[in-house]
Every structure is written in structure tokens, then in C-alpha cells.
């Protein structure tokens, strides 16, 4: 019976949680077991470690799970000292459970447990009137034990249910007791990347299985009097270790400096007092005051009042500053991704802060996440603990090493039997048989495989494509689907105003190409005021579309100076954020902007609330996607030709936005008015058309990819007809191919979910045999939720995904990967960060040399970097195959030579081994990796499997030729008149030099050279061998030497 008086024991194993509860453990499919230290087992293992000379400790180091199951016994998770976790890939992790004393009843301060649950928690962990907080750290994240759930959960779960209303309640600040408690639970606000000492790194490096094998080999060679070879390998290994330690520590120190952020910030306490504290002490719920001069954000925070101009290039690669506005008060759950416009992210720079009317010059924000739970922390964590690529080539390479190990065992058995037959000493039998293992299993194989990747990374860097994840280069060679963002990726960043058209129930007016020619009225005021453009040092900053829109009206933007209340008296006492002033020739007055509800990809709209001079009139303006704005306007104000007109403009490739307005009662409190109240019952004003030209390189690159049998997909937030038009203009859809629109609707109170396929309008889309599907975000969501059985079929034929929000872009990439596609994604890094990171190969078009938004960053501001990367990836993959086969054949060649010479009671000399291994083979492998990629993309992709019939077949044929060549050389030598047999009474080293050894040395030397030429495959993914000048020179030099 436990302390609660119930019969059951807490579970000792955490079952795999549902995929919909990712906060419950590090991996939503991770299995967790609890263990408790058993003292007698611990001491027994210590004794066995001493008796085995430390060998058991080495085994425990390589397999931590073995250390746990031998020293511990299973126990309930609630009582565990250590946890053994196994992820979905079968990889096991060991973490220690830590404890910290807390005051009794502290959990009530979070307000997330009722009284009964709080009492149960205290009873379970009460020791000497103290409550123990049990937690562990994994990948930088903190997980705490919650008794009511019966498992460890991410500490962030304690605030994941916060609503916008809850966040606003923190504007008064926390009291000291709450701060202390939260600091104990959440830990310090620090993204701390440990920089290990050289001694610690040395032990970790030396205990690597590769270096242990090297150490074993060196000891073996020394015992066999191979002094030159052993010393050379030892020196090379020491140099390799030294370089590796230096690079690892340098990278750790660089990441440590980049990740660690400690600044002084001003917070408000519950007493109303303002206090400057270190950012390390910040906890979720703290109210941070952001000064007018800005701040480097040390945490994630939701903006409660005021406005902030933020540079988010560190996270997104997007150089245009973003205007953040206050989080609206409401009962909806807060989410940092969907509420990005109200969220200040850790690591971003607040360039300028503006306080609200009642709060002075400082903007207010409440801390929502700290440490590794912030956006920056998540990105640093992804660098420190990268996602396994699960690339077939890497898996097969490991399997092939085991295969070579089996060959080594057979060779060892043959050697033992042979030396027993020759009555060799026990030492000779052991040394010679183990020497076979060091020959067959090449320790240089992992290094040889990475050579091609290093060369490819260097070539990419010279072409302004930067990589922070080199293993992804090989994966890019297998990409079969490439997704592209539209605006700024396929099309130009800037948009030009094509024209505006006013509308009413009676219909649309004529198109006005220059908005400044519009008569004063709601339409002109909407174009001038409905934006989030702001001033920085007198220069307008904001979305390029909005900058063009405001510029086209001829109105000018002014912002309040000093204490921020410059214009308040002029506009009826309202706190004015900005003033739009018309040209002097217009017979209209200035308009003050008092509230901004910024654009949201999920909502597809933005709005502002404005007042006229004197505060006599309050008008709200709405701008967004045409369909969304029309749905928020009164039906009687929307023109009957709305759908037809929108369709016609969209088919011409124009980006179409709609505008609306409504008059608001002057008595309404504008400082607290809700977005939902503003953006309803609007009056339709008209349409704004903007021309977004396709980049000149886009069509060429798309055609190049299609010829290479790479499928191309467009993912955009724009209108579906506009997206289809751009897809046709850039070559994704040919003029003679059909476009079929997928329309799915969710379940509603009035209707059942439905799925329909409809053809495009006659005249625009021709009726060819080939067809493409096009779908928008709403239909995609309904398809995923209600028709999952059709999802794979739709994904396999869809070319255009329109009106997709950032989360849907990420979901799409993941769904494509589930279909076994190797997916590439190219975007600007702003609204597609999630998709870039979710893809196998993500390329961010950014000015930065390295962006944590994606594995690859290109300074080339068009998609011409995509075929460049694919060509390099294919070249790297083909070269890795060649090097793998060469190193494997090199081992087999030497293996055959040694076994033949063993049979004849001799062996290769020390310097002969040294020449082959360190001079001949190493130099050939280095120059083999230097060959560059082909100039063109071929229609076929290189293979990624080492266990395919062509690879294994070629290895078998080459091995047979090697054996026949060496056996033939020996037989030919024995048949010569001048042949002098070996003195069988002397051991092998006393027979040097001898004819057998010399003949096999020469023949195997030629075999090394010929095999290097044979496996250096060029066409079609790599330039021919004769284009690699260094290789040709080295091959000719060695060929001439052996002749």
C-alpha cells in the first residue's frame, strides 16, 4: 500500500504517450523506465572494473544502458534515481533524476493544481516538512515530475494553457515568493552551451571506438616489431586528435558566445516598484519594461502595451524589421507561433520601443518562456542535438563494416590454422591472426567518406551557399521533390501598385492606376492608413507591399516625439501611434492611427483604428486577402460581381487585396477595444491590385529541375488563382496541362464534410492529358482531418498549395516525407522557418552567412542556388560511394596479399605497409575526392544503397580479379628459372627481401592505382576523371614509379 492508501504501485515504465501530447516527454514516442541504485550491485561492478583492468568500464562508457541495468533495479518513476529512455529509432539515453527542496504548498502559487492534488503531491515527497522537486535535464530542457499525471513533463507545460487574459493579468508583476518558487521550478534563464576542458575532451575523444581500435592496432604492431609503421600511425593519430580537440572546443566556444545572453532588464514587482535585475533571474510571468532605445531580448515575451520595432534577422534571416503590437485581451489560448505579431523572441533586437498612453515611454511585456524553451533556445538545441538524418547510405556503411568484420574473422581462423600447421609459437599465432583484423577493417573508412562532403562544402562556400549541417549535402543528392515559397523566392520581393478599383453593391468602378488620383474618401484613407509602417531615424520601415501602397497615395507618415504624446491633444485626447498627413493640394485633414491589429498569416488580414482631427470621428479600416475581407463585410456592401472580378485579376497574376471600413462610436474606449469587435460588419471599399513579377532565373531553374525529373511544388499564402498563374509563368505548369482544384470542406452544423475536384475555367487551362492539382489552406486542413485516406493521392499530384499558413507549410513538408520523398524547401526564412527546418534540405535566401532558420543559407537571392546544391549533393554522394568502395577494395587487396604471403611463410615489410597505407592509398583517396560536379543535372539520381546489386556485384568482380591477379603473379614467379625458394627454417622477417614479397608488392601497387581509376565514377553526376588535373598527375606519377 502506498502513502495514499491505495493498492497500486506507480508505474515503473512510462508508456509511449500520444503524439498529440508532445510536452509529456522529450520525444512523443519515447519510452521511459525508472531505475534505483542498488548498493551491492554498484560495489560489485566496481570490483569487476578493477579485475578486468578497466575493460568493463569502457563497455559501460560505450553502452550506458548496460551500466544502468547492471547497477540498478527497476522501480516506479516516482522513486527513480536514474531514467533509461528509448526513442522511436531505438536509441537509448540515460539521465539522472535531480531533486531540490521546496517549501510546502509551493505548487499552489502556479494555480494549476487543486487543493486535493496539491496535498497528494506534498504527501508523496514530504521529507522533514520539505517538499522535493524531482526533475531531470534532457537536451537542455527541464522535465519535472507531476504526480497527478504520473510522469515527467516539460516544465513549460505549467504555462502552456495561459490565455491572453492570463498574460495581461501579469502586468502588475510577481511578488518575491512567486519569483523564488518559479526560479526553482523553471531554472535559470540561460541558454548555456558547456565548453569542456581539453582534458575532458581528450578522454572523450580517446575513448571513441575508432581510437581504441587504433590504440589496439599500434600495440599489436609494436609487439610485432613494426616500429616505423606504428610510430607513424601514432603521430598521425595524435595530430588528428589535437586538431579535432581544437575544432570541437573552438566550435563549442563560438556557440557558447552566440547562445549565452546576459543583460540587465527592468521588471515591475507586485508592489509597483520597478527593479533592475539580471536576465538570468527572469521567470515566466515577470513583467519586463522595454525602454525607448530598445533592448536585446533575453527571453520570449508577449507584448502587453506599447509597440516595438524588432529586428528578427537572427531567427529568420529576414532583414526587414517587424512592428510588434500589443496582445489583445481575450480568453483564447496564447501561442507564440500563431501570435507572432505580439511576441518578442529571445535573441532578437528591439530597435525601438514605444510606451502606451498610460505607461510612459516604456513598452510592457510579460515573460512567456526562458532558457532552452525560447525560440532561440530551441534553435540552439537543434544545433547541439541535431535530428538524425536516417540516410540509407550511412546505415549501409555501418552494416558493411560488420560484413568486413565477418571476413576478418574468416581470415583470422585461416591464419590460426595455418600457423598451427607451421608449428609457430603462441605469440606468433596471436599476433599474426589479430593483424588480419587491423587490415580488413579499415579505421580510415569514416574519414574517407567525409572527404567528399568537405570538398563539396568548400565549393559551395565559394559560391555563396553556406552550410551548418554538412551531412545534409549528401542527402541533397537524393532530393526528389523541391518546394518553393512564392513571394521573394520565385517572384521579386518588391510589388508595384497596378491599380485600385472601388466597389459597392451596384458594382465596381473603373480601374484607377494611380491611387493618388482618387477623390478624398474612405478608399484613399484606407490605402494611406491601413498598414504597420513605422519610422526609424526618419526613414519609413515595414513590409515592402505596405511601403509601396503608402507611397502610391502621396500621404506622409509622422510619429510622436519626446514622451510619445505629441499629437494626443490634437486628436481628442486619444493616444496616437502615428499620423498620416495628406498632400497639401487635397481637401482633407490628417488622420491619427490609435490602434493597430497587425497582419497575421493565419487570419489573412490586418486592421487599424483611426481618429480624425479633434477626435470627432472614429473609423476602422481593414485590409487583407480578398476572400477574407469580403467575408467580414456586410453582404449588402459587397459587389455582386466580386467573385468574377477577383478571379479575372488573379488569373492575370495580380496579387489582389481587398479593403473595408466602418465607423465606430466615439464613446467606445479605443484602448481596450477588441480585434474581433473591430473586424466585423465592415463596409466593402474595393480592391488593390499589385503586380509581382517572376524573377528572370525562376523559369530557367524550374525547367532545369523538371528535366532532371525533380518534382517542383509551390507553397504560398497568396490567392490560389494568382499562385496558379505564377506557376504557369515560371514553368511548373505547362500551357497544355490541366489544373484541377481540390475543394474540401469540414463538418459543420449544417453539412457533412465533402471533397470535390473541379476543372479550371475554359480558356485559361487547356485540356491536355497531364494534369496538376491545386488546393488552398482551408481545403488542405479539411482534407487532413476528414479525408486522410485521400491525402497521399492528393499530395502526389498537387503542384500549387495556396493560402497556406506557416504551420500548414511545415505540416505539408512532413506529410511529403511520410510518403518517402526526399524533400527540399527554398524560402526567404520569414514565414517558412518551420518548413525549412522540417525538410531534408532547407535553403534560406538570406544575406547572412549562416542562418539557424535552415541547414543551408544562400546569398544568391534567387533559386539558382537550388540546382547548384543538388549538383554538389549528387557529386558528393557519388564521390562518397567511390571512396567507400576504394577503401573497402584497398583492405581486400592487402588482405589477399597478406594471406598469400602467410601461406608462403613470409609477409610484407614494415616500410612496404607504411608506403601503401600512408603514401599511396591516402594520396589517391585525397585527390579522388576533389572532382567537381557535372555542369548539368541528369534525369536519374545516384543510388544511396551500398547493398544494391550493382555495388555488391562490382565489389565481388573486383575482388575476384584481385585474387586472380595476385595468385597469377605468384604462380608466374614460381615458374621462372631464376626463382629461388624461401628458406622455410627461418621466420618471415628473416627472409626479407624475397622474390614473393617483391612480386606481390608490385602487383598490389598496380591494383591500388587501377582500382582508384575504376571506382572514380564520373558521368553523369561528376566531371570526368580527365577534368581532375590533380588526380591525373598523381595517377601518372605512381604508375610511372611502379613501372
Automatic annotation (TrEMBL):
Segments traversing the membrane: 43-62, 228-248, 400-424, 436-456, 883-902, 908-928, 949-979
Alphabetized Pfam families for the sequence: Cation_ATPase, Cation_ATPase_N, E1-E2_ATPase, P5-ATPase
Membrane topology of this protein: Multi-pass membrane protein
Occurrences of domain Cation-transporting P-type ATPase N-terminal (ranges): 163-221
Keyword Protease among record annotations: no
GO biological process, one term: regulation of mitochondrion organization
CDD domains reported for this sequence: P-type_ATPase_cation (cd07542)
Record domain P5B-type ATPase N-terminal: where: 27-145
InterPro entries: ATPase_P-typ_cation-transptr_N (IPR004014), ATPase_P-typ_cyto_dom_N (IPR023299), ATPase_P-typ_P_site (IPR018303), ATPase_P-typ_TM_dom_sf (IPR023298), ATPase_P-typ_transduc_dom_A_sf (IPR008250), ATPase_P-type_domA (IPR059000), HAD-like_sf (IPR036412), HAD_sf (IPR023214)
GO MF terms, alphabetically ordered: ATP binding; ATP hydrolysis activity; ATPase-coupled monoatomic cation transmembrane transporter activity; metal ion binding; P-type ion transporter activity; polyamine transmembrane transporter activity
Compartment(s) of residence: Membrane
Keyword set, alphabetical order: ATP-binding, Magnesium, Membrane, Metal-binding, Nucleotide-binding, Phosphoprotein, Translocase, Transmembrane, Transmembrane helix
GO cellular component: late endosome membrane
Record domain P-type ATPase A: where: 270-382
Main subcellular location of this protein, as a coarse class: membrane
Family designation: Belongs to the cation transport ATPase (P-type) (TC 3.A.3) family. Type V subfamily.
NCBIfam families to which the protein is assigned, alphabetical: ATPase_P-type, P-ATPase-V
Protein name: Cation-transporting ATPase
Species assigned in the record: Mugilogobius chulae (yellowstripe goby)
